[in-house]
Amino acid sequence: MTRLTKWFRRDNQVSGVSMPTGSLPQHVAIIMDGNGRWARRRGLPRSAGHHAGMRGMRDVIRASDDIGIPCLTLFAFSTENWTRPETEVEYLMRLPEEFFRTEIDELVERGVRVRFIGDTSKLPAYTRDTVTRTLERTTNNQGMIVTFALNYGGRADVLEACKRAAGEVAKGTVGWDEITEKGFGEYLSTGDLPDPDLLIRTSGELRMSNFLIWQAAYAELWFTDVLWPDFRREHLYQAIHDYQRRKRRFGGVK
């Protein structure tokens, strides 16, 4: 586990961390956790934490684009998050509208292409409208791909991929022996993306929470106690520096 305590100042910013150079991860995935605890420590409603978390999203997207990360995936809302209080869920469902209303012009200017994974059909109509408008504005962009996992669950993703693969076999399009481990990945919602090289989770929790469970099989995991609203580009840079120091063997020996 990577701890950042020695890097903290009182304002929770990391000091002395330079912009990463050299070999960069091609795909960074982030579990953005800790909004509620951030708000509670300040005597604020949980909605204030979620709103503050948008700053973290903006900063990390900018930082990733600035250093040349090709793919960034952000876990925004899980299939399990529907069990939260109704008022909190409604607030979370309206945040994408605010985020993209204020950020879409910069995303387009940067050439960022936005994607969504998860069952968006179950989202409220106003959230689906935001998804549709965002896709339309960025679909032809050729820069960094930012994927928002919205109403996403890793198990559901694998299950739907199995159904799609079985459907291809049933139609005679492919044979069972053609469904290889590598080929199966193409049936997943991220089938057109490389698997994540680096998976970051904030807030000190040490679990995957049903996020990209197939795709992240060989991702380097990086955990930090920093709550998501306090996560900034310096923390991202530190995660990438640590990633660059690791030896990735993929089960082999070097």
Give a structural overview.
- By secondary structure, this protein is α/β, with parallel strands linked by helices.
- The chain is globular.
- The chain has helices at residues 35-41, 46-67, 86-110, 125-138, 154-171, 181-184, 233-245; strands at 27-31, 71-78, 113-117, 145-152, 198-201, 220-223.
- Helices cover 41% and strands 13% of the residues.
- The chain has a single domain (5-10, 23-153, 194-245), classed as Decaprenyl diphosphate synthase-like (Undecaprenyl pyrophosphate synthetase).
- The two termini are 23 Å apart.
Gross morphology is globular
Number of domains: 1
Write down the CATH topology. Answer: Undecaprenyl pyrophosphate synthetase
CATH class: Alpha Beta
Give the mean pLDDT: 92
Q: How do the SSEs run, as a string of H and E? A: EHHEHEHEHHEEH
Q: Going across the major beta sheet, what is the strand order? A: 3-4-2-1-5-6
Which oligomeric state applies?
A: single chain
CATH superfamily membership: Decaprenyl diphosphate synthase-like
Task: Tell me how many strands there are.
Answer: 6
CATH architecture: 3-Layer(aba) Sandwich
* Beta strand %: 5-15%
Instruction: Let me know the largest β-sheet.
Output: 6 strands, parallel
**Over the alpha carbons, how many angstroms does the gyration radius reach?**
19 Å
How many DSSP helices?
7
Protein structure class? alpha/beta
The unreliable regions are 1-13
Distance between the termini: 23 Å
Instruction: Estimate the helix proportion, in percent.
Output: 40-55%
